[in-house]
Amino acid sequence: MAARKDIDGSVSVPAFYGKELRWKREAAGLTLQQTVEGSFYGASYLSEIERGHRRMPEELARHVDRVLHTDGFFARCCEDVRKAGNSAPAPCFAQAREMEARARGIEEWNSTVIPGPIQVEPYFREIIRAAHPHYDEEKVVQLVAVRRSRAYVYEEADGPASWTVLHESVLRQPVGGDDVMAEQLAHVATVAGRSSFVVQVLPSSGGPYPYMTGSTFLMSFSDAPPIVYTEGAYSGQIHDDPNIVVEYQQAFNRLRAAALPPRESLRMIEAAAEDYASGNRARRREHRRLASRGLQSRNRGVRRPGW
């Protein structure tokens, strides 16, 4: 049996609420299963609420108040907890990672980098060094190990059905240089060869699109309602309000419709990987640099009217 995890109620309002829920339930001598009997929710869902990972639906809160004889406390407070949200620094992505491990399906959008679970070590190291230049090597090694521990999400044949949309600029931004990008994009193409993982590229010429900032993960489960996890450079937030989740899902559907078809996207990724590996991209960059210097030199030699 897995060890029981303590709950730190100081982390967030949902964690405080969940800790109180667990205390009341255990004081009543009830298991998770006994507490949810007669409701439409499962024991695992209630467990996530106790750990501060899920929002308490009002109907479940009323049920819990009846079972635990808590005089309407949880029903009165559940809306305040929902408004408080579940914001936290990026390290608390651990909560979303726990959900990721149980997800039946994952849909992800990223406008800036390759998705975490399929990042190769050199690529990820460059991202860490850029975001946290003060980290020592021991810290970087630890983060690399955590990142690669999530590789199964996209790379294992029996992983969840996954669908990722990348902006074309992700393929063009030389993170770590040409060798690193060649390895990274070739890896994405290899993983995309499996039926459980689909990747699309949103072309730069496509104009405005949903989710123009940050990254977004939509996760669905066989035994719980779906959630959305949004992440910026240094913070993340879990959304499980049904109305918000639907908005994100509809936006992702529009994004997917605007992207190139999967086969065409895969060909673009493979071509970009070959471009980096062959040195063609480096030669084009050098040509543009020399052309730009030549243009600047000519401009300096032209007399402007009135000078």
TrEMBL record:
Provide the protein name.
Helix-turn-helix transcriptional regulator
UniProt-listed SMART domains:
HTH_XRE (SM00530)
Record-linked Pfam families: DUF5753, HTH_31
Domain (HTH cro/C1-type): residue spans on this chain: 20-75
Kindly give the InterPro entries that the UniProt entry links to this protein.
Cro/C1-type_HTH, DUF5753, Lambda_DNA-bd_dom_sf
- Listed Basic residues bias regions: 281-291
Highest taxon listed in the record's lineage: Bacteria
Report residue spans for region: Disordered: 276-307
